[in-house]
């Protein structure tokens, strides 16, 4: 039994918010229970001559932890975020520009990487940046008895034998990014893959719903059930 | 006061050498494929690796400059000496040594036809193990690496250190001797002309003794030159064999 | 080898010129590599899924407590481990520390400039650190000298001397080999003076619970799977995958970035990674045996 009475493949209560930052071109906040990340997108905008690419937009990511100085852990998150979205964003449509993604962790209760990927996805949709697919992420852990739990909290992670964060894209259904640490067998990995895929599909429906609500509010129209 | 005698009553130093003996030397050029020129030198237990990139396009826009700019980066690995030194980015001692090496090589590089005036030559020096004599090992390795990179120079720059202890001049000091109050004089020489391009002394040495220490160091430089020369010739012969 | 680039001038007015291989590689690196990979080989002659020949040496740096040098093809990495004494944290009074760090200096490749460590060095350092902590590589309690007063901290500095792609595999292998080579001196804590007395010779080896070794793969043009990418191939890959396997064939880490990869391909990579880790482990064992014998 999990501390918060969830089933092994239940995601925590999710909150989303779009367009909270008025000066950014797009922004999104995503919450898995108490883990919350706010993402702001600036771009496509002009960047220095030295940095620009002639055939595509340059994606830059800046990630800040909830508190404390920025360490190599944040650099790894930035790299993973950048490589995830470089493939999703149709950067060839905006050559010689830069798209700046800024993520701020508001509260860390486990699964920060997955939260930031989802927050960035929301922000990109809010900014209207053309995308190849929708990318959603969720994390899971395997405990010492080999049981798989979806979307663990920081408390549960203390007992983890291995932790996994998966990001899937909805067009091909394949894994875009994966960060797994700890000791695990191939079978455990496959179960995590399956559980996270289901979780990721649920999150994609949720993101779609959030975007739909925002567009309905903006345009005053009713899109009905999709 | 060290526990060992710097020079024992039999006339042997702490590592078994006689006062005017150089440490065992081994050098190789063309060690790495990425750099335009590279060299690795082992002088006793001091291991030094140098990579030269250039002449290439400068990273910063340069104002009118006479000749190519040489940038020297001198790094000491944190596991290289007895105590671990965390590398500080702007460590003044390292920058001082880098600037000394830069000034040693600046007047030696020929520019004009083969080397553009506004180009940049980057010298990256990495000390892997320290046992005294880092400065002169770095200079010797830089000479080899520059030659390997094909940078035209007026002459070899050969360097060696010498010191004075109780009526004897000692050649090529190791770490124990350097740290035991033996004044260390590092000399950089251009062997063809006999001109001194570098002279570095950081402790007190009586003027009467200075001449003999300088002479011993210069002899050490001459021997160093023979070693460097034979290394380059061997390497070139190998290259010539494969270039058929 | 000359490469033709356009049609004849007389037929449609376009100019006809040939480029030599080197120039073509610099101007159109993607196309250059594509011509090889589409035929099942790579620019350096390897079949798509072959790893480069590895070379391991231990104990070359005598000033360090443990050292190793690993060469993967031409990527050369040297790891030196130095032990220092420090105070433990109050939460874990017996636990020592292992601090791995990878440096990619300007020396190793023209793409790195002098200055603070870049993103690649920081991300690899972080991932190696995660592998060390999450797999319980070392019993940190083994590093205790006096509980609550003095513990060993092992600074593992990994220095890349020549970078030709795939620093992660080389760095992790060098770290494992160097840790296996570490010898600590017998030491006692003096209560009265508050100092640690260490024996003159280093004799005590470390006990490693796990030997995680990495294998990196890349996908070119979203189709072809290649193993152990070189620095020429790295910027052209659409996705990269690193898999870490230990001596019991358990997985110790998977890091994937880039475009989507399907499940079958990942499983294929896990199999290849197992073989590679086994081969690397054999090399490390041989190098250690040679060092112990001498």
TrEMBL record, chain A:
Annotated organism of origin: Rhizophlyctis rosea
Name this protein carries in UniProt: Exosome component 5
GO cellular component: cytoplasmic exosome (RNase complex); nuclear exosome (RNase complex); nucleolus
Matches recorded under Pfam families: RNase_PH, RNase_PH_C
Principal cellular location given in the protein's record: nucleus
Record-linked InterPro entries: ExoRNase_PH_dom1 (IPR001247), ExoRNase_PH_dom2 (IPR015847), ExoRNase_PH_dom2_sf (IPR036345), PNPase/RNase_PH_dom_sf (IPR027408), Ribosomal_Su5_D2-typ_SF (IPR020568), RNase_PH (IPR050080)
Localisation per UniProt entry: Nucleus
Keywords: Exosome, Nucleus, rRNA processing
SUPFAM superfamilies with a match to the protein in the record: Ribonuclease PH domain 2-like, Ribosomal protein S5 domain 2-like
Gene: EXOSC5
From TrEMBL, chain B:
Keywords: Cytoplasm, Exosome
An example Gene Ontology biological process: rRNA catabolic process
Keyword Cytoplasm: yes
Location in or out of the cell: Cytoplasm; Nucleus, Nucleolus
TM ranges: none
Alphabetized Pfam families for the sequence: RNase_PH, RNase_PH_C
One MF annotation (Gene Ontology) recorded for this entry: RNA binding
SUPFAM superfamilies to which the protein is assigned, alphabetical: Ribonuclease PH domain 2-like (SSF55666), Ribosomal protein S5 domain 2-like (SSF54211)
A cellular component term, taken from the record's GO annotations: nucleolus
Signal peptide positions (record): none
Oligomer and partners: Component of the RNA exosome complex. Specifically part of the catalytically inactive RNA exosome core complex (Exo-9) which may associate with the catalytic subunits RRP6 and DIS3 in cytoplasmic- and nuclear-specific RNA exosome complex forms. Exo-9 is formed by a hexameric base ring of RNase PH domain-containing subunits and a cap ring consisting of CSL4, RRP4 and RRP40.
Family the entry assigns: Belongs to the RNase PH family.
Name used for this protein in its record: Ribosomal RNA-processing protein 41
Organism: Rhizophlyctis rosea
UniProtKB/TrEMBL annotation, chain C:
Protein name (record): Ribosomal RNA-processing protein 43
Origin: domain of life: Eukaryota
Keyword line: Cytoplasm, Exosome, Nucleus, RNA-binding, rRNA processing
Entry's localization field: Cytoplasm; Nucleus, Nucleolus
GO BP terms in the entry: exonucleolytic trimming to generate mature 3'-end of 5.8S rRNA from tricistronic rRNA transcript (SSU-rRNA, 5.8S rRNA, LSU-rRNA); nuclear mRNA surveillance; nuclear polyadenylation-dependent rRNA catabolic process; rRNA catabolic process; TRAMP-dependent tRNA surveillance pathway; U1 snRNA 3'-end processing; U4 snRNA 3'-end processing; U5 snRNA 3'-end processing
Entry keyword rRNA processing: yes
Pfam families the record matches: RNase_PH, RNase_PH_C
GO cellular component terms given for this protein: cytoplasmic exosome (RNase complex); nuclear exosome (RNase complex); nucleolus
Molecular function terms from GO: mRNA 3'-UTR AU-rich region binding
InterPro entries, A to Z: ExoRNase_PH_dom1, ExoRNase_PH_dom2, ExoRNase_PH_dom2_sf, Exosome_comp_Rrp42_subfam, PNPase/RNase_PH_dom_sf, Ribosomal_Su5_D2-typ_SF, Rrp43
Presence of keyword Nucleus: yes
Major subcellular location class: cytoplasm
Family (UniProt): Belongs to the RNase PH family.
Exoribonuclease phosphorolytic domain: residues covered: 51-185, 211-275
CDD domains, per the entry: RNase_PH_RRP43 (cd11369)
Source organism of the structure: Rhizophlyctis rosea
